[in-house]
Structure to design on (596 residues):
């Protein structure tokens, strides 16, 4: 039946149009979000649930497939009662992460302040140098630091030997926790501080110069100006770089795994990530590996909660 | 008093700081490249200058080490990741920055939380999942993982960019009679292009540098990515430092060139991500 010609009753048309508009308004954001949410749910969220399930099971690989037996919290009680976890794995993870975060943020901030004071040419040169440090992938960076600290023929070992600090024939920096993690820290800080420097610099550039002029008139020295003007003004930037660094540094894997002995052959230098990986893939004990992974996730979730709470508290009314 | 200290600091302090910074940042890069070029790489010890300049190690990694294939694999995985991550994150960023809808905050928080998930937690179940779906050793399978890894950060960064585009600009376009897709192409897209470049770079870097998944998933040696390919030259007790550093140089230099070209956009991209959210 052909639709009647002429103007339709105004009420119905407006109503239909409004309803259609409302439907579009309701579904459009979800349509736009759907692909991302599917990918995130399928590859990050679902595996995370799986790892929780796996940590309660004994998983065995048989003829290409896997069979699992439910074991309850056995893996957790084994893990939490092992002295390896409390004496080696957790201290390594936590101290290393905090050392890296502290040094990364401090150095990054100092460099940002430096860049802010330089003229155009030198700022350019230093920025490119920083980008070079950043561009070195974790894998390649790690190999360079290993080569520099290589026992006997590494540059640092030879120099330290020639000034009598060590005997380069017998000293191996990588066999003990202290030196092992000192080198890893150097590596992580070298790779991580550019992010902090560039982000903080971007923040510094937004601070009005008048604030500093006023501070100087009031007789504040450089240190006071930094703590009373710079830090409060760009506090959100500091919060974000600190918390992101914390999250990244708790998860450091490659830099530890690739250093000599870091691949599981030396228990002294285990961190939580490496421990979990070795249990699962070298010892085929997926359950314990998964339990360690859950422990790491819980640690990071606690940090995440702090992150979100600070984000909300910085007055972001419409997140 | 203050002025004198400032001049003193800038006369000695600033140049010293600049030299220190350049040494700390560039020395490892220099050491990598010069070792790669040194024909007697493994005998360098504390010699700062290489004993000679040659390309033997580079020839070796391509001829004997199959490194061309690995670089190609990395490029394929990287480009797939860029395109998919940029597209998906732009859609998602528009949704969370432009529309008010129920559960918007919850979605944003969920995205933030999945960003915190440690890779080592995912590698076990994803390995099992990939094996069950026969996706191990597949460049596509690896790319999908990298897309997921780069999405959270990309969405949060782009959200900042979309939010900085004034709503009035869009409304003006609507008043001029533009449809939504038209507004998207001719108004929004050009304005968020710098942010899109920044997120693409991050997605590419994620895929290019990643080691754990590539190392665990890619067991056929012709499917290695470049980051894993270096590993084959590295031995626990005796390492051929020339090939290791030559392949490391090949992995690092493209990223370096990238960073230098886009470094202005990089800074503003980070700031948008950090300040806006």
């Amino acid at each position: 039946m052909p639709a009647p010609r002429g103007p339709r009753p105004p009420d119905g048309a407006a109503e239909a149009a409004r309803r259609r508009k409302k439907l579009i308004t309701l579904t459009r954001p979800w349509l736009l979000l759907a692909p991302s949410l599917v990918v995130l749910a399928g590859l990050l969220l679902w595996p995370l649930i799986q790892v929780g399930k796996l940590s309660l099971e004994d998983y065995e690989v048989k003829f290409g497939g896997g069979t699992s037996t439910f074991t309850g919290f056995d893996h957790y009680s084994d893990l939490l009662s092992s002295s390896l976890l409390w004496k080696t794995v957790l201290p390594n993870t936590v101290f290393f992460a905090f050392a890296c975060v502290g040094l990364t943020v401090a150095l990054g901030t100092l460099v940002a302040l430096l860049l802010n004071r330089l003229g155009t040419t030198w700022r350019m040169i230093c920025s490119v140098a920083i980008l070079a440090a950043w561009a070195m992938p974790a894998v390649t960076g790690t190999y360079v630091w290993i080569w520099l600290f290589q026992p006997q023929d590494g540059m640092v070992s030879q120099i330290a030997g020639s000034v009598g600090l060590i005997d380069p024939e017998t000293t191996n920096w990588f066999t003990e926790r202290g030196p092992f993690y000192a080198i890893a820290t150097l590596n992580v800080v070298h790779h991580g501080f550019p992010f902090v420097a560039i982000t903080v610099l971007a923040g510094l550039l937004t601070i009005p110069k008048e604030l500093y002029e006023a501070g100087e008139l009031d007789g504040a020295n450089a240190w006071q100006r930094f703590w009373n003007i710079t830090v409060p003004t760009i506090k959100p930037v500091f919060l974000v770089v600190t918390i992101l660094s914390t999250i990244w540094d708790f998860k450091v894997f490659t830099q530890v795994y690739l250093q000599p002995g870091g691949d599981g052959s030396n228990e002294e230098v285990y961190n939580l990530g490496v421990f979990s990986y070795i249990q699962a893939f070298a010892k085929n004990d997926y359950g314990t590996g998964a339990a360690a992974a859950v422990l790491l996730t819980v640690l990071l979730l606690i940090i995440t909660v702090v992150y979100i709470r600070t984000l909300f508290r910085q007055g972001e009314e419409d997140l | 008093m203050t002025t004198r200290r400032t001049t003193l600091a800038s006369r000695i302090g600033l140049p010293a700081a600049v030299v220190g910074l350049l040494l700390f940042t560039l020395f490892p890069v220099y050491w990598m490249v010069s070792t790669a070029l040194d024909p007697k790489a493994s005998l360098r010890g504390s010699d700062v200058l290489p004993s000679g300049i040659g390309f033997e190690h580079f020839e070796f990694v391509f001829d004997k080490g199959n490194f061309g294939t690995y670089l190609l694999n990395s490029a394929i995985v990287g480009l797939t990741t860029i395109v998919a991550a940029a597209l998906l994150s732009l859609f998602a960023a528009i949704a969370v920055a432009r529309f008010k809808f129920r559960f918007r905050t919850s979605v944003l928080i969920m995205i933030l939380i999945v960003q915190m998930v440690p890779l080592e937690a995912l590698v076990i179940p994803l390995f099992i999942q990939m094996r069950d779906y026969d996706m191990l050793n597949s460049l596509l399978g690896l790319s999908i993982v990298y897309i997921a890894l780069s999405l959270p950060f990309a969405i949060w960064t782009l959200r900042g960019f979309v939010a900085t585009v004034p709503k009035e600009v869009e409304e003006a376009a609507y008043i001029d009679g533009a449809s939504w897709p038209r507004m998207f192409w001719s108004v929004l897209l050009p304005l968020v292009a710098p942010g899109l470049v920044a997120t693409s770079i991050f997605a590419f870097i994620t895929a290019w540098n990643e080691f754990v998944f590539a190392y665990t998933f890619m067991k056929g040696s012709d499917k290695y990515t470049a980051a894993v390919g270096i590993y084959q030259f590295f031995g626990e007790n005796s390492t051929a430092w020339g090939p290791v550093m030559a392949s490391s140089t090949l992995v690092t230099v493209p990223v370096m060139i990238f960073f230098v070209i886009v470094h202005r956009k990089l800074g503003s991209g980070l700031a948008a991500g950090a300040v806006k959210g």
Summary: Residues 2-37 of chain B form the longest helix (36 residues). Chain B touches chain A through 100 residues (CB under 8 Å).
